Each structure stands twice: as structure tokens, then as C-alpha cells.
Amino acid sequence: MSIESITKPAAIAVENIIKRYGDFEAVKGITFSVAEGEIFGLLGPNGAGKSTLIRMMTTLIPVTAGKAIIAGHDVSRDSDAVRRVIGVIPQALTSDIDLTVEENLSIYAKLYEVPKAQRKRNIDDLLEAVDLTKWRNAQTKTLSGGMRRRLEIARGLVHNPTIFFLDEPTTGLDPVSRVAVWEMLSNLKAQRNLTILITTHYMDEADRLCDRIAIVDHGKLVALDTPMALKASVPGNNVVEVQFTRESTDWPARLERLTGVTAVESQSGGMYRVLTSNGSVTTTQLVEMAVSHHETLKSLSVQNTTLDDVFVHFTGRALRDEQVKAAAFTMPPRPGMQP
Amino acid sequence: MTRMFAIVEREMRKFFRSPALMMVSMALPLVQLVILGNAFGGKIRNARVGVVDYDHGYQALKIHEAFDSIAANIRTFTTVPYQNEKQAREDVRTGKIDGAVIIPRQYSRRVLAGDSPDIGLVVDNTDQVMSSALEAEMQSLVDALNAPIIQPLVVKEITLKIVELYPYVEYMKYLLAGSIALAMYVAVMIGGGMLYIDDKARGVHEGYLVTPITRLELVLGLNLAGAIKAILSGICLTVIGTLLSGLGVIFHPWALLQLSLLIVAVSVAFNGMMFLMMVRVEDPLVPRAIFGVLNTLLFFPSGAISPISGFPSWLKAIATVDPFTYAVHGLKEILLKDGGFAAIWPDITFLFLFGATCLLIATPLFKRTL
User: Fold this and answer.
1) Residue A275 is part of which domain span?
2) Domain B47-146 top-level CATH class
3) Per-domain residue ranges for chain B?
4) Could A92 and B203 be called an inter-chain contact, meaning their C-beta atoms sit closer than 8 Å?
5) Which residues in chain B touch residue A113, judged by CB atoms under 8 angstroms apart?
6) Is the pLDDT confidence value at A157 over 90?
7) Which one of A137, A278, B23, B335 is separated from A247 by 20 to 30 angstroms, measured CA to CA?
8) A85 at the B interface (CB within 8 A)?
9) Best residue in B3, B206, B208, B367 for a mutation probing chain A (most A CBs within 10 Å)
10) Same-domain status, A139 and A283
11) DSSP secondary-structure letter at A36?
12) Do A132 and A265 sit in the same domain of this protein?
């Protein structure tokens, strides 16, 4: 985040916001603010409350308690004014498959009452920006998932909003399409001076795109800072992952004695995650120790601290484990319904 | 208004891109019109009636001549000679013949003696339509045989003179009003009910809800689009149906104007009713599950198939609040009776009021949030 953006007024200010469904509290008093021109990420596993939070900020569901101010307008009191300044891309692909690309954009421009002369100009510019100009007359059903997502990004910007909300915009896309969406969002943000709030459960997406990241877990905000600062907050600069051919209860104690080691985490299958402030020295000593104990290493990797490590540090669980758990409990989509 | 018409534009573009919807909405009423119209209400033709003649006299010969006349002209039945009554009864029971006439011994003599002779008619009364037709035909024949050859100067018998206001109405024509209403109902059910819930489930409405469109604009946009779809369906079935059933009403501008106004009123009523029923429904299975029940509940008590005056009181109560009833009544007035605006204005008034009331109730129920 630039110094300039810190000094600007908050585009989004959320204060102790709560959402309850009966006895269940989906969002438990979250507070944060997003500066103008910032890309802000809400990171968390499925069911953490990210979508509920974004739906309250975009006026889709009422706020139970607390406050959300978007571009100076209270979502509970002045929801219509909020809707005029925001663009929203929901999680599901909701563009009309029977309409053409241009018709999809045109209908939404009319819903925002964009004047006729400006409508065409906006559509032309956006189709160019999302690289769909040559598909403007194609029926949406003929587009790939990545192209449809790009169309939806254009649709969300057709009325020139100043704040753009994206709910898991790359879920279900292949790696190439994901990178294309990231680049497009970065370019659009630069061209239009957008404030972007994005929810995601992809660490790499949050790391690559966001100026600041809020980690949400079980409806609570557990950490909020820049990706660099979050990674720096985790003890150790590097993570050494090592797996021995023979399992032994002695390994954690031995590993902790190596130079620079700040923490050792035992994982399944005889794997250890060693957090260290000096990856190269720790790795050299680890190999020497294995040789001296006549042990063979099954695998060894050294990497910098990632947001995965940050998530584990703040929540005590790996994000990917949460995804697997969530996937196991996800109801299969009904025929005719979008996943 | 721009936002409301954006909703209408989106709905209509989708509608015209899916011609299957229009075809499906008309398929059921058209099939019903053609199949039911031809299956029911037609006159009995070429039934087979066995004749057991134990008399063979002059008066029996007059009966045979009358039967030959029926077979040659009105063709209600043809005769099959039988030698004994037992075999004829057995063949009626097993369905080989549709009825049997027994002319008893001494029939001619008893006629001449004025001794009130009987002619037997054996019918299979499990088939009410066939037995009634044969009974009616035989009663006419007996009445003719009873009539004096020379009419007295002073007629003492009271007779009923029936004046039919309209030419004979075939059942297909009678059914057409119900079929048009049914086509509009199916169009509303699919175009306004099922697709509306499917759009909700797909998240399309979520896209609308983040725009500044107001609740009223959204409700009116969705309903206007639904009403247009129903009107188009109604017009298509009116044209096809009148041509199929041989009614020329669509070629009369005044009747066409009345039809157009009534179709608009019906579409407003049906669409308002459907929107009210679906306004809080989230599950796409619901409209599919209730389609058949609603169809039965609304269509059959409407008088489309048989007159309401024959219903029990509880069914009459349903008919009174059923918009189908007013749609069918109004359409029959125009299609079959040329009743003019005087005959249809109560129907039109009810239908518009019904639709408006449904929308008035549905609008506050429509959730502007998820």
C-alpha cells in the first residue's frame, strides 16, 4: 500500500459489524477500513464469513448490528446511494447465457441508468479492457468459464463505480484464466483508480493482488496487515519441510537444536515443518545431522514464509485442510443451479 | 422506467431466444383441444344394434323401415338381425353389439288392437353416452310410431318448441375458450413461475439486487414481461385454435378488439396470481411440483369442460374466485356467442382487479435483499 493511499479517506469503513441467523452468529463483530485506491483481500476458508461480510457491505443482506460505511454512505440507512457507487461480482456466474456479451452489459448499464450516449462508450471501453471485443455479439453460452468471468467483471464496471467488490472471482477457473483475471484486475484498478475488495481462499491470489489482507476465521478477524507484514509476523523467515524414511520421536527435539530454528511442527507421514531465521544454515546442519545418524532423507524443501504459514500461525490450522473439510460437507448442486 | 424496461428487455430477449418455451406452453392446450375436442361431445355414429323380431307383421315392418331410415340418414346405428333374444343380450353384454331391440310376438296385432304393446331395448348402461344416445333415438322412433296418421283438427297435447340461438356448437369449439386460458396459464407458469425461481437459484436476482433498481420497478418489470409472454401465447392459441375448430371470429375486427382486451386482462390476472404464489419461493422444485395440482385446481372448476351449475357448492365456491372461470366465460362469450362488451365487462373488471390485488399483496412480500 502506498503512503498516498494511507492518507486518503476510507472508501470502506466497517465497524464492529455482526450478522446473526437465529442463534448462529456468522460474522462476529469485525472492524476494518479500506483506503481509496487500495486492493483489500478478505482471506479465509469456506464458511469463514467472507461472503456474508461482502453481502452486508453490498446491501444484499441486512446488517444485524454494527456499521458499514461505503463511500460515505451507511449501507443500512442509505443503501440506494451505496448501490450507485459500487460494482459487485457475485461468487456464481450470473450472466445470462441466452444473451450476447453486449446485451448482458447493455441491460446492466440500463439498470444503472447510464445515459444512452455514455452506455455505448462504456461498453466499448470495457470490452476492450477485458479483451472480449471480438466476442461482443457471441451468445454468452459459447464463452469459456474464464471469458464469462471477464464478462462479469466488465458488467460490474459498466456504470463506472468507484468501489468494486469481488466474491471469489477466480473460483473454478483454470490457472491460466486465474492469472489473466489477476492481470485484468490490476490493470483496471490502475486505469480507473478503483478501490477493490476481494474475497478469496487462494493464498497466492491474495499475495499477488492485495495491498492488505484481512484473515477471517469463524466469523472473526484474526489478522490484518500487508502481505509482507503478515509474513514477517510469523517467526522465522524460511520454512524447511523435511521427511525422513524412518520415523522417530527424537526428531523434533534434534531439529529444534539446529541453528536459527524457531519452531518445529510435526505433520502426517513423518513430515516436519521447520521455521527458521536462516534457511541455508539450518538445511546444511540438517543434512549433516541425518548423515551422522545414518538416516536417509525422503524429501527436503526450503521456501520463504507464505500466507499459508501466516494462516497456520494465526488460526492453528492449514487453510487447505479447511478447504478439504468444507468440500466434504458441501451439498452437491441441484440440476439447473449454479455451483 | 429505464430500469423497469431493462428487466422486460432481458426477459423478452431470453423468451425469443428460447422458442421451445413458447411451443411447450402451447403444446398441452393444443393437444387437449384436438384430442378432447374430438373425443368428447360428438354424436354417436354407426353403433350396432341387434334386432330380434318375433312378430314379422306389418307393424314390425314399419319399425324395420324406421331403422333403415336412421341408418341411411342420421346414421346413429345400423341393425344386425338376431334369431333369439338370449344371444342378443349376451352379445350386448360382451360388447359385440351396442344394444338390442326386441319386437315381441303378437306385436302387430296388439298395435292394431290398441293393447299397449312393448318394444324391448337392451342397452349396456355402463356406457352412459352410448346408452343415452340409443334410448333417445328409440324414444323418438316410438313417439313417431305413436303419432296419429291423420292429425286431429284440435291438438290437445302440449309440445315443447326449442329455439336454439346459435348454430350447433361442436365440443371442440366449446373447449377452445378453456384451451386459450390454459395456454396462457402454462406460459405464465413456465415463463413467470419456473424461470423466475430458476433465475433466483442461479443468482440472477442477486445481480439485480446490487443495482439501484427499486422493489416496485423490479416487481413491475418481472410482471410486465410475464404478462407479455402470456399475451403472446394467448394470441397464438386463439389464432391456431379458431382455425382448427372452424370459428371465424378472428376475422371480425370488433370481436378481435374484445378478444385482445380480454387476453390482456387474463394475462394480468394469471401473472399477478403466479407472482403472489412464487414471491417467497426459493426452491426450483416447488413450481414444478405444484404445476399439476394448480392446473387441476384452476382449470377444471372453471367451466371449461362442463357447466359450473352442475358442481357441488364447495366446487362452485372455488369457481367463484378462480380467475380461469372469468377467462373462460369471457372467451366463450366472444368466441361462441358474439355477446359484445356488455357480456364481457364483468369478466374483464374481475380479472384486472384480481391481478392488481395479487400484485398489491405480492409487492411488499417481495424481498429487496437476499
Assistant:
1) 235-304
2) alpha beta
3) 2-39+171-365, 47-146
4) yes
5) 2-3, 212
6) yes
7) A278
8) no
9) B206
10) no
11) T
12) no
Cβ <8 Å between A338 and B284: no
Instruction: Note whether A99 and A226 are same-domain residues.
Output: yes
Q: How confident is the model over B36-45, as pLDDT tens digits? A: 877 776 778 8
Mean pLDDT, chain A, integer: 86
Residue A271, domain CATH = 3.30.70.100
Q: Do A99 and B14 touch (CB under 8 A)?
A: yes
> Would you call B129 exposed, middle or buried from its count of C-beta atoms within 10 A (0-12, 13-18, 19+)?
exposed
Count of domains observed in chain A: 2
**B24 membership: H or E segment, kind and range:** helix B19-39
Amino acid symbol at B360:
L
In whole angstroms, what is the distance from residue B280 CA to residue B292 CA? 20
d(C-alpha B174, C-alpha B169), whole Å: 7
- The confidence score (pLDDT) of residue A2 equals 47
Show residues of chain A in contact with B208, CB under 8 Å. 111
Q: Which residues in chain A touch residue B18, judged by CB atoms under 8 angstroms apart? A: 98
Look up residue A131 and give its three cell numbers: 479483451
Here the cell at position A27 is 460474522
Answer yes or no: do A133 and A262 share one domain. Answer: no
pLDDT at A111 exceeding the cut of 90? yes
Confidence of residue A204 (pLDDT cuts 50, 70, 90): confident
The residue to which cell 331391440 is assigned: B101
Q: Which residue of B has its CA nearest to A116?
A: B2
Q: What confidence tens digit (pLDDT) does each residue in A218-250 have?
A: 999 999 999 888 888 877 778 888 988 877 788
First to last CA, chain A: 34
Instruction: Say if the Cβ atoms of A103 and B13 lie within 8 Å.
Output: yes
Q: Do residues A151 and A130 make contact, with C-beta atoms less than 8 angstroms apart?
A: yes
Same domain, A121 and A162: yes
Cα distances from A18 to residues A22, A53, A57, B159, in angstroms, run 12, 9, 11, 86
ipTM tops 0.90: no
